[in-house]
Design a protein that fits this description.
The chain is α/β, with parallel strands linked by helices. The chain has four helices and five strands; from the N terminus they run H-H-E-E-E-H-E-H-E.
Length: about 130
């Protein structure tokens, strides 16, 4: 078998390996430069310590207003009329600014009655009134 020699033609060959090496070097350069130029932004956060929690006052227990199955309002398990409940809530919120009022209604009560009582309490207590659900 005779080996055929490559015939020299007038078209030059392009060797791609050195071009790929140069492109990879440029790519690595830009990656390294972009990684070093990114700035880390820090936010100073002061975490609470155990000593700070010991000095805080204990939370105020909420005033619980219950509506029983007959629609009777109970505050601290004692029956009151709607006007008396309003005065109880006003006096509680005036003495405890951080306090809250929780309405616990019997599931068998009509929804309209519960919503009306909740609206009446919200007129007195504003955002400190909530509805308890099970």
């Amino acid at each position: 078998m005779a080996l055929k020699r490559r015939q020299q033609s007038g078209i030059p060959e392009v060797n791609l390996v050195p071009m790929i090496d140069v492109l990879m070097s440029v790519l690595i350069f830009f990656i390294v430069v972009s990684m070093t130029l990114t700035l880390e932004e820090k936010v100073d956060v002061e975490l609470p310590s155990n000593a700070a929690s010991a000095t805080q006052a204990p939370p105020v227990p909420p005033l619980i207003v219950k509506l029983d199955g007959q629609g009777q309002a109970l505050v601290n398990n004692q029956p009151f009329t709607e006007v008396e409940v309003g005065s109880q809530v006003e006096s509680y919120l005036s003495s405890n600014e951080e306090g809250s009022v929780v309405l616990q209604a019997d599931p068998l009560l009509p929804y309209e009655q519960v919503v009306q009582t909740l609206a009446d309490l919200k007129e007195i207590g504003g955002g400190n009134v909530s509805l308890a659900i099970d």
